[in-house]
Amino acid sequence: GKCFGFDANACTSCRPGLRLHLTNKFNQTGECLETIVCISGYRERLDGLCEKCSQGCKACDGSAGNQCLSCLSSWKFYPNVALGTVQTGQCLTDCPSSFYVDDNLCKPCHHQCGECNGPTHQDCKSCEAQAELIIEDPTQMTGICQLLLTEECNEHRYYYPENSADKCLFCSHFYHSKSRKCLNCR
Predict the structure, then answer these.
(1) Type and span of the H or E element at 125
(2) Quick one: the chain helix, strand, coil %, rounded to 5?
(3) pTM of the model as a whole
(4) Which of 9, 75, 77, 160 has the fewest beta carbons closer than 10 A?
(5) CB–CB of 142/161 below 8 Å?
(6) Average pLDDT of each block of 10 consecutive residues along the chain (186 residues)?
(7) Helix, strand or coil for residue 13?
(8) What pairing do the DSSP bridges indicate for beta strands 105-108 and 99-102?
């Protein structure tokens, strides 16, 4: 094959039986490897060259950051839900806030949670604005997000959205008249 100087990563073509794995997209140079298929972290282009996937990708269908199909073991897969697909996504070191990790996959928290460690409304670690966290599991420091009391709610009731129709619900826990909040007994 053809290489520039003595650098093994500066080849533009390879001898038969070797595959060019591009390490520099700009000048189309790379390393010749003894393999029939592209190695992990690379994808085969239409011209037969192996192109590097974005950082953290184990397999991809393009070199852009959101074209990963799977991630390396320590990375989390964040699917392209906004683009209408879950087959491709990004490989991240951590899931974004309002997502939790499940088997190295970033999954969305319940809509009331700001941060969470699971999918339900009881797995919240923090809340969206206008809500406070009521700890129900002190070992995990998780609980439910309760919207702050509004003036429309009478005593012993709290404001809580239910099926997007806002309602004042009766406190199932102890009601503290001074703070006008429902409290969980500890």
Answers:
(1) strand 124-127
(2) 0, 45, 55
(3) 0.68
(4) 9
(5) no
(6) 70 88 87 91 92 94 91 93 76 94 94 92 88 88 78 49 49 49 47
(7) strand
(8) antiparallel
